[in-house]
Amino acid sequence: MRLTLLLCCALAAGAQVRYDLLLKGGHVIDPKNHIDAVRDVAIVGGRIAAVAADIPAAQAHKVVDLSSLYVTPGLVDIHTHVLTMSGLRGSLKEDQNVWADSHTFRSGVTTVVDAGSSGWRSFEAQKARILDHSRTRILAMLNIVGGGQVGGAGEQNTADMDPEATARMARRYPGIIVGVKTAHYQGPDWTPVERAVQAGTLAHIPVMVDFGVFRPERPYQELVLKKLRPGDISTHTYLARAPLLDDHGRVLPYLFEARKRGVIFDVGHGGGSFVFRQAVPAIRGGFLPDSISTDLHTESMNAGMKDMLNVMSKILNIGVALPEVILRATWNPAHEIQHPELGNLSPGSPADVAVLRLERGRFGFVDSFGARMTGTRKLVCELTVHDGQVVWDLNGITREEWTKLGAYDRMEDRSWDSTFGPR
Ligand SMILES: [Zn+2]
User: Fold this and answer.
1) Which residues form the domain of 207?
2) What does DSSP say about strands 75-80 and 109-119: parallel, antiparallel, or unpaired?
3) Ligand 1 centroid vs 173 CA: distance in angstroms?
């Protein structure tokens, strides 16, 4: 593998330096802009400056050679649990949420949406404590339960599902609160879905539904054909109990009808919501997910889910083409949460970039029921850039060989960047 760092001597050459960072020679997949070709990507001031066939190396302070690698927009994971970190369910041990930065950049993710860990009463405290201090861009969907995803009886308490209060809080943080979530409901009625849709309508944001216990009194078909609005999201699409296939393993026609209405189907893999025996026939039968998401939490992070790239690799090995997989982890989810500046490499967009290596070999993937699928391709994250800063560099491809740095000088300590070494 040829990965070399070209520290540019542009100033010495007298050339005009216009860019902070130039990602050179990678295969760019930017589905929003219909780019699937070798391109250079130039970054300045934390923004994408240009994507073109050949941008001169002399125009950048730093140039990184990415030949043989894929360059995509920073990945957008719209179903995670990263707000709370103890307190919500009483103790750290019970809390299933994780610290975003520990999981995101190493798998190319630059934006996550917390899917309903907090509700209108708990959001501001969690924003102050976690969201405001995270390097990962954290956005949130408010749980329709005022106290958030508190587990057990709390999530069944329809008296704490206040659409007006939820919408009011959402409107206070436009662009940060990007949706309303309902989850884990066990009752026979539609109350949580209806209240969530009411809140979403008032705040002009989508609703994401984890359908909880499937009950005959409120069929899933009715959810996606009648209850949800166009743009609303059904997550945990390839769940074991979701009615996806007929007795012959063919995709049930109502799903295509729901998609035609504009309802979004999201993966939301999680610890119990992705089953190969559902996903493989459904996807091969043409029912692809609109967005790929992890449902990252403590019960999924070390199980079959693992991380965003592992979930994307599953979809890839099921038979979906790489650009289609990238689309569902970048532009589609950005569009779903009404953030058109994310999930793409358009000039002016935040410089969020994932550099991926497609490994070939024999790999195993595990679903939520412990079943294995063998695959031949696996995505690995080499480099992640977030707001123009390198935040993950697996093999140090943006770094100089230590042998070329000369004698160690104590004064160098002063230029140490605690987040990512000396610049
Ligand atoms: Zn979840």
Assistant:
1) 73-336
2) parallel
3) 21
User: Percent of the chain having pLDDT more than 90?
Assistant: 84
**In a domain? residue 192:** yes
Pick the residue with more confidence: 205 or 214?
205
Q: Is 352 within the bounds of a domain?
A: no
List pLDDT tens digits, range 247-258: 999 999 999 999
State pLDDT tens for residues 380-391.
Answer: 999 999 999 999
Distance 98 CA to ligand 1 centre (A): 12
Q: Give the CATH number of the domain where residue 259 resides.
A: 3.20.20.140
Tell me, in angstroms, the distance from the centre of ligand 1 to residue 116's CA: 8
- Surrounding ion ligand 1 within 5 Å at CB are 115, 295
In a domain, 137, yes or no: yes
Separation of 81 CA from ligand 1 center, angstroms? 6
Q: How many domains does the chain have?
A: 1
Q: What is the pLDDT of the chain when averaged over all its residues?
A: 92
Residue tagged 């919408």 (tokens): 167
Residues 6 or more apart whose CB falls under 8 angstroms from that of 159 comprise none
Q: Read off the tokens for 122.
A: 């708990």
397 Cα: distance to centroid of ligand 1 (angstroms): 35
Distance 115 CA to ligand 1 centre (A): 6
Task: Tell me if 40 sits within 8 A of 52, measured CB to CB.
Answer: yes
- pTM value > 0.90: yes
